[in-house]
Design goal:
The chain is mainly α and about 500 residues long. The chain has 21 helices and 8 strands.
Length: about 500
Amino acid sequence: MRPQETDGIDVAALVQRIQEHVFPRRVRIKEFFVDYDPLKCGRVTRDQFVRSMGMIGVRLRTGEVDAIVAHFTEAGSSVNRPQVVSYTKFCQVVDEIFVTPNLEKTPGLEVPKPGAAVLQEFAPNPVADEARLENVMHRVALLEKTRGVNFLACFSDCDRADACSLIVPRRGGKVSISQFRRCFPFLKDFAEDEVELLVARYKTRDGSVNYLALSEDISDANVNFEPTIPTSPGVLRKDDATWEHDDVHVIQKLRSMVVERRIRINDLFRDYDRLRKGKCTYCQMRTVFSILKLDGITETDFEEIFQLYKTEDNMVHYARMCDDVDDAFTHKGLEKDPLWRSEMPGRETTETARRNKMAVPASVRDAVDDIEARIRKRVRQRRPLLRDAFQDHDRVRKGHVTRSQFMRVIDSLGFELAEVQLDMLCQVYCDRGNRHEFNYLDFCERCDVPEEHEVVAMHQSTAAFQNHKPSRYFDTEGKIIPRVAGFGGGYGTNSTRPF
């Protein structure tokens, strides 16, 4: 039984809408009716039919539901009221989307593919002015590309349409017309009639706007425009300054790094020297330095090390290099020179690894001395907590702050230094081989010099504990202890007496 038109409502179109909802979700609608038909008569009441349609998930208006109910209602003496709606015929009509009924009676019938009668994809609606619509689409695609707008993300918060996905069932790619106007990202760039063209083009049968199809058409649009993206070639600014490490020998630099971190570099080289020949390749040497994270070794230093310890077969004699580096810890061949006194490495040994100062001209040094004299005078007058102000920016207590942090602290303390003066201070106190790490500990040591009594008090507070010794000349009341005759000038009972 094919559906007909009832009360001005096309039942066939309603059935097709139900089939479009059922087919992508693979729903068998008969399962929603059998619980209301315990006698298996194939009919249910009107209220049960409406309730089952709601469980299927099809959204129909009251008049549309009444049209379907009236179409599938059976009448006659054999029909027991109120179960008058034949759900079996309704299910048979809807399930034609999956299988052809009564196929056993016509074996030669050509069977269409499942879902052939259902419109699977959205088809854009034709509009009157196609040329203007193409111009609008081109402008939308151009604005999306030039401004870097994610078109789908603009509508995702308002998308509550039904979708056949089991994972995200509320992302059907459709919004209402008012939501489309509210979320359209280029509303100020288009006239009202141009927006109406887009709405008319992508309007669905239920009155919503398929923004997903609009986004796909925009992505497929040919926009002959390549935005200019600012790029950097990665060329570092040329540094004309002269640093202390430029004149330091590479072995001395390497020795200071090893002593500072207490590293045994010989053990890592042996992993690449199974035969213990004391040699390795150039790449293996660089790999060991990378594992040790010796960042202070530059490309020039690697080449110098390779030329110093290069063997005849173009390998690196790492054993000799490790011996030269380990001289900071011990003296090689100590058993042959028993009178040799080896000393523990001090701060002078590791200073090369910790400091890399800039060579400052004498004129800049004199100007820095004048600036420090002004700062010291102000510190004596107002006694600001100079070191504490810097430590607020140095949470891990490295002893260094950035150049911008140093300038911020100086301005907050009210020293009123010019930009040129700050640059001079950075040239003197940036001692990490760059221009942006400022050593505020050395700066505070020169500009916030403690008084003599403060030094004595600090020494006494940090000195080791000593037991109290009673006075030889005064008693506990502060009176002079009288001298006892005949005991060699001793005083009282606390004097030393011969026995």
